[in-house]
Design brief:
heterodimer; A: alpha+beta; Ubiquitin-like (UB roll); 2 domains; two-stranded antiparallel sheet; 11 helices; B: mainly alpha; 3 helical TM bundles of succinate and fumarate reductases; 5 helices; 83% helix
């Protein structure tokens, strides 16, 4: 294979009524990824092509696209693995298109934010001014650690058939994160998250299609997280859920290292423009 | 009641229907030579056990079906006012169907 054909979705909201497909034939190199192909097109053929990318190694989650009708990270998809001479690249479904291959992920981030994806500690004083580290056994970490690998790329949301039909459905990414933080022993905010996810557009709309888990490039299993969240909510409603024990704190070290001072330039001064 | 309680009832009625319909199929169709008609339901419902059985299967069946239909309709992203109207419509349909269907066993139990 010396040449590869890219069929790329183009869409400019200022000029186009609906997305169209543009074809590019570019030279193929061994080990080339879909992102490499798109970068080649932008640098050598058409510099108006828009797409998001950053780390090029499947960490940042920026380059989520619909590649040959499957949601994937372009940097994580070698062209040879697709076993096709023609590659169709479109913007992620279930999200509005900003331009060409750039989806508007603001609905994902809003839903993600709504489930309070952070530790809500019962002892905020310890969080604000820690005296030592919270102790966490290996088993306690393993209860949620795989869900912490989420890079917020939106592929699971693009793959989910329920997100496609109900725009109010929270979706696999926020729900998996709701479970991830509720299962964390340091967290005390499970009740708040259960209240938010236990609605008719919440956790109960997951029909366990499993498309989210199949699409995830980081090996996270959001479908499993959602089933575990359902179980936790049911247990909580029947008062069968174990009351979370506040995490124990490690003994302070005999020789305390001084805390590194916050750099002056990072401190926001009152009245200063952001 | 929280959404989880309605969903829990959906699971319970689903399991209940499996056993109740299974029992009904075995004893009313496979092991019985009775004619399948309302009069045989009515005569069987004269006993307290069968009467309870029929009322239970009605409640479980109606709840499971109507709550399932509600779940499907809610996936159409309805506004909050429409959800309220849907909930009331579902309750009214449920009560009406139960009232109509429970007449035969009640009639058999009383007479």
């Amino acid at each position: 294979m010396e040449k590869i054909t890219f069929k790329v979705q183009r869409y400019d909201p200022d000029h186009d009524k609906k997305p169209r497909i543009q074809q590019f034939v570019i030279p193929f190199k061994h080990g080339m990824t879909v992102l490499d192909g798109l970068i080649y097109i932008k640098e050598n053929v058409d510099n108006t092509l828009s797409f998001r990318s950053s780390c090029r190694m499947g960490i940042c989650g920026s380059c989520g696209m619909l590649i040959n009708n499957l949601p994937m990270l372009a940097c994580h998809t070698p062209i040879e693995e697709l076993k096709k001479d023609t590659i169709t690249v479109k913007s992620l479904p279930n999200f509005p298109i900003v331009r060409d291959l750039v989806p508007d992920l603001s609905s994902l981030f809003a839903k993600h934010k709504s489930v309070k994806p952070y530790i809500i500690a019962p002892d905020m004083a310890e969080i604000e001014k820690p005296t030592a580290e919270f102790l966490q056994a290996q088993g306690q970490l393993e209860e949620f650690v795989q869900f912490a690998y989420c890079v917020k790329c939106g592929l699971c949301m693009a793959a989910c058939p329920t997100v496609a039909t109900d725009r109010h459905f929270l979706g696999p990414q926020p729900l998996a994160q709701a479970y991830r933080y509720s299962a964390d022993r340091r967290d005390g905010g499970a009740k708040e998250r259960f209240k938010h996810t236990d609605t008719h557009h919440g956790i109960w709309l997951c029909h366990l299609a499993g498309a989210c888990s199949e699409a995830c490039p980081k090996g996270v299993d959001p479908a499993l997280a959602m089933q575990l969240l359902k179980r936790a909510i049911i247990s909580d409603s029947l008062r069968l859920r174990k009351k979370p024990v506040p995490p124990s704190v490690a003994q302070p070290l005999a020789e305390k290292k001084p805390r590194v001072a916050v750099p002056e330039f990072t401190i926001k001064k009152p009245g200063a423009k952001s | 009641m929280r959404e989880v309680h309605w969903k829990l009832l959906q699971y319970i009625t689903g399991i209940g229907i499996f056993f109740l319909v299974g029992y009904h199929l075995i004893f009313s169709h496979f092991q019985s030579d009775e004619v399948t008609e309302w009069s045989s339901v009515s005569s069987r419902a004269a006993s307290a056990g069968w009467f309870t059985f029929y009322v239970l299967i009605l409640i479980f069946g109606i709840y499971h079906v109507l709550h399932g239909i509600r779940g499907i309709i809610l996936e159409f992203s309805l506004p909050q006012s429409a959800v309220k109207a849907l909930d009331w419509a579902i309750v009214l349909i449920g009560v009406a169907v139960f009232g109509y269907a429970v007449y035969i066993p009640i009639n058999g139990f009383i007479s």
